[in-house]
Specification:
By secondary structure, this protein is an alpha/beta fold. It is 32% helix and 28% strand. The chain starts with 6 loop residues before the first strand and ends with a helix.
């Protein structure tokens, strides 16, 4: 019997990259409508390229990408909300929080250079929902890491998006901010959004997300943390043997062999 699950985001034998260099090869993968999935893999595996295919920032060499059945063109998919890596943002650019959120408006709404009263009200409501009420006039660099993530979530959501993309949302933030991000994602997921999170933090997604896709140039495995986090699949993805520990419903991935054992640490201390 054919799969009747509604297709939210689908990659059909896609090869993609930049300037003729291929990063993703023959990738076929489907994220159903309303799913929450974390994409993990080593540096250079294509996590950001996967996201940029949906926003129109990567070159698709072969294959098709569809969102709710509509093919994604060079300009990216409609009703996609994108939260970039914080490290890729120019925090000295003269921009207030309110302006940053409003710049996320859909292309169809930019027929005039100013923001309408309705758009300002929408931005204010989103900032209030995300705990940033009264921050509209602050410069973006004056926010904490967690507040910056919330601002970009508001910027993504002002497009009335159906799919939310987050590229490395836990990179460079503390544990409290990670916890905060998780609660925000849970709320948005329960609202019906389809959410794709790329991250290098394998144990964070293993502990917190219901579904993981292992990526290294193509999808190596896709399923629950217990299904995909096995020594063989992790080694195929990262190219190194790792230890996978199952403790009840929790899964922990760590180095198979300690690089700095007690003897090496003791030796290092003696030399110092």
């Amino acid at each position: 019997m054919p799969d009747q699950r509604p297709s939210g985001v689908a990659f059909h034998r896609v090869s993609a990259g930049y300037g003729g260099v291929t990063v993703l090869r023959d990738l076929s993968w489907t994220v159903e409508r309303g799913a929450l999935v974390g994409v993990v893999g080593p540096s250079g595996a294509g996590k950001t390229t996967l996201v940029r295919l949906l926003t129109g920032q990567a070159d698709r060499h072969h294959g098709r990408v569809t969102v709710f059945g509509d093919e994604v063109g060079a300009g990216g998919a409609r009703r996609i909300g994108y939260v970039p890596q914080l490290g890729a943002v120019d925090w000295d650019f003269p921009l207030t929080v309110g302006q940053a959120v409003l710049l996320g408006r859909t292309p169809d709404s930019r027929r005039v250079p100013w923001f309408s009263r309705r758009e300002r009200a929408r931005a204010g409501a989103l900032l209030e929902r995300l705990g940033l009420a009264g921050f509209e006039r602050r410069h973006i660099r004056d926010l904490s890491g967690g507040q910056q993530q919330r601002m970009f979530l508001a910027r993504a959501m002002i497009r009335d998006c159906d799919v939310l993309l987050l590229d490395e949302p836990t990179s460079g933030v503390d544990l409290a901010t990670r916890h905060d991000i998780l609660h925000l994602l849970a709320d948005l997921w329960h609202d019906g959004l389809t959410i794709i999170v790329t991250t290098h933090d394998l144990n964070w997604v293993a502990a917190q997300l219901p579904r993981i896709a292992l990526l290294n140039g193509t999808i190596v495995a896709d399923g629950t943390p217990r299904e995909v986090l096995t020594p063989d699949l992790v080694e195929r993805t990262y190219g190194a043997r790792m230890r996978v520990i199952h403790d009840g419903n929790q899964v922990l991935v760590t180095d198979d062999h300690a690089v700095l054992g007690p003897r090496r640490l003791a030796h290092r201390g003696a030399v110092a």
